[in-house]
Design goal:
The complex is a heterodimer of chains A (about 160) and B (about 170). Chain A is about 30% helix and about 35% strand. Chain A is built from 3 helices and 7 strands, in the order αβββααββββ. In chain A, strands 1, 2, 3, 4, 5, 6 and 7 form a 7-stranded antiparallel sheet that branches. In chain A, strand 6 and strand 7 form a beta hairpin. In chain A, helix 1 crosses helix 3 and helix 2 crosses helix 3. In chain B, a hairpin with a 2-residue loop joins strand 8 and strand 9. Classes of the chains: A alpha+beta (about 160), B alpha+beta (about 170). At the A-B interface, strand 2, strand 3, helix 3 and strand 5 of A face strand 4, helix 3, strand 6 and strand 7 of B. Strand 5 of chain A pairs antiparallel with strand 7 of chain B.
């Protein structure tokens, strides 16, 4: 994976989150990890198959997750991450992944013809403490995002 | 076969055969499968270490293998010969992940051959953590327990739209 992959997903984050009124975004760090360690309580994992294979995950601490969902629901208070809240987070994850892949496709990095399509899976949520992940055996690129709603970490592990 | 596709039970049947065969071949374990498949809620608590493989194609779904940490450590020792004491050890994580990868690949081959369904596997994820819950909302899933001398392994299949397919 080269920097174009990071840039596509950074651009996707900068496009999708402001559409929910989250404007003050800051990329605090970019990391390359051999194995993913998500020390945040909530992680949504989306699988990609087709011409691009791998997993992309979105990790949040509990308070940040509530704030992101609240922003998506026009400021409605969110007390717990229940099925409705997870549905909103799933939508957010789908939108960022979709946008990131579209940018890659526009740059001929992801093939999107009928024969060479990229398909996503429904997000699976993993919720717990000190969750230690291994996403595939490929290197993971991590984008750490900070804003008034809190923090989010995007981990991209694609086989290239 | 166009239009027809397997239901969750057929995937579970294939999974139970494959998991039994591969555990025996790789680890020399002869597990006992409880074929009374149990419907699971959307929220499943991990027993210790869990591997998930999603698939897509004619249908989307997930195959999950979940076991207590001690079971994973014992199976790792049987397969690799390495005595590990920590679930976060790469050897343990990779063993559980690879076991799921082989089993899921086997199951999808059976289903693809029967239904020409072109299902494709997504690389597995594996994780361990405290009080970890796995949620796949709006998709029904069913599990069976596979008992071994080292503890019970839970195998789970979730199939998107399986309620519609089953009428």
């Amino acid at each position: 994976m080269d920097e174009e992959y990071i840039n596509s997903f950074v651009e996707a984050v900068y496009t999708i989150l402001p559409s929910y009124g989250i404007q003050d975004l800051k990329i605090t760090s970019l990391e390359v990890k051999e194995i993913m360690f998500a020390n945040k309580e909530i992680t949504a994992v989306i699988g990609l198959t087709g011409s691009t294979r791998g997993n992309i995950s979105y990790s949040f601490d509990l308070e940040s997750a509530k704030n992101f969902v609240s922003a998506m629901m026009m400021g409605m208070p969110v007390d717990t991450i229940d099925e409705d809240a997870r549905s909103a987070m799933a939508e957010l994850s789908n939108q960022i992944t979709g946008r990131g892949c579209k940018i890659l496709s526009d740059n001929d990095k992801v093939l999107s013809s009928e024969e060479n399509y990229t398909d996503f899976t429904t997000p699976t949520f993993v919720i717990g403490k000190d969750v230690y992940f291994q996403i595939s055996t490929v290197r993971t690129l991590a984008i750490n995002v900070e804003c008034s709603a809190g923090q989010m970490q995007v981990n991209i592990g694609l086989e290239m | 076969m166009n239009g027809e596709f397997a239901d969750t039970k057929e995937l579970l049947d294939a999974l139970s055969i494959s998991l039994t065969r591969i555990l025996k071949k790789m680890a020399g374990i002869s597990p006992l499968v409880d074929t009374n498949y149990k419907a699971e809620s959307n929220e499943i608590f991990s027993r210790g270490i869990t591997s998930i493989i999603n698939f897509s194609g004619k249908a989307n779904g997930r195959i999950m293998i979940d076991m207590p940490i001690n079971t994973a450590l014992s199976i790792t020792k049987k397969i690799t010969g390495n005595h590990c004491t920590d679930a976060k050890n790469e050897m343990v994580m990779s063993t559980v992940s690879e076991l799921n990868n082989i089993v899921a690949g086997d199951v999808l081959t059976v289903i693809n051959n029967k239904y020409s369904s072109k299902l494709r596997l997504i690389p597995p994820i594996v994780f361990t953590g405290e009080e970890t819950m796995i949620c796949l909302d709006k998709i029904d899933s069913e599990s069976f327990d596979c008992s071994t001398d080292f503890g019970n392994i839970r195998a789970n299949v979730a199939l998107e739209g399986s309620d519609k397919r089953n009428g």
